[in-house]
């Protein structure tokens, strides 16, 4: 099923990651629950001085290996990895949005640099507590308003 038709209830956001050299982003999600769940990864990049717009450069619902998208169902107790790994060929600022259908789908993001053949160095890791988590209310809805704000009924 195409990711845009799935109700992703949770969204995990990274902060901006400054990249000065060619790196690989590896996104992994572990399903710690007892039911299958789905994950979708969106990557953004931008650069410049002052205020600037970021552009989407990766979508696991579109970018794929062969003919099948990598957005998919993760069975209970299984690990999902974005395939292909996400290459950053341009210097600048990068950030990620990881959408899941369940809070039992736990994401991790690794930023790795290939040092030489067969060797890589991990430059940064986003573990579950490093993400900002937002509960979503619709497939493409904006984050819900602050629950503490007063509302008016008409």
Structure write-up:
The chain has 154 residues and is mainly β. The chain has one domain: Hypothetical Protein Tm1070, Chain: A (Sandwich). It has strands at residues 10-13, 17-19, 23-31, 37-46, 55-59, 64-65, 68-69, 72-74, 79-81, 86-88, 92-100, 105-116, 119-126, 132-135. The strands form 3 sheets. Strands 1, 2, 4, 5, 8, 11 and 14 form a 7-stranded antiparallel sheet that branches. Strands 3, 9, 10, 12 and 13 form a 5-stranded antiparallel sheet that branches. The termini are far apart. The model is unreliable at 141-154 (pLDDT under 50).
CATH architecture assignment name: Sandwich
Q: What is the β-strand count?
A: 14
> Whole-number radius of gyration?
17 Å
Order of helices and strands: EEEEEEEEEEEEEE
Content-based structural category: mainly beta
Q: Indicate the overall shape.
A: globular
Q: What name does the CATH topology carry?
A: Hypothetical Protein Tm1070, Chain: A
Low-confidence stretches: 141-154
Which CATH top level class fits?
Mainly Beta
User: Beta-strand percentage?
Assistant: over 45%
Task: Give the terminus-to-terminus CA distance.
Answer: 39 Å
Characterize this entry briefly.
Helix content is 0%, strand content 50%. It is mainly β and 154 residues long. A hairpin with a 2-residue loop joins β6 (64-65) and β7.
Overview features:
154 residues; mainly beta; Hypothetical Protein Tm1070, Chain: A; 7-stranded antiparallel sheet; 5-stranded antiparallel sheet; globular; disordered C terminus
SSE topology:
Blueprint: E1 10-13, E2 17-19, E3 23-31, E4 37-46, E5 55-59, E6 64-65, E7 68-69, E8 72-74, E9 79-81, E10 86-88, E11 92-100, E12 105-116, E13 119-126, E14 132-135
Antiparallel strand pairs: 1-11, 1-14, 2-11, 3-9, 3-10, 3-12, 4-5, 4-8, 4-11, 6-7, 12-13
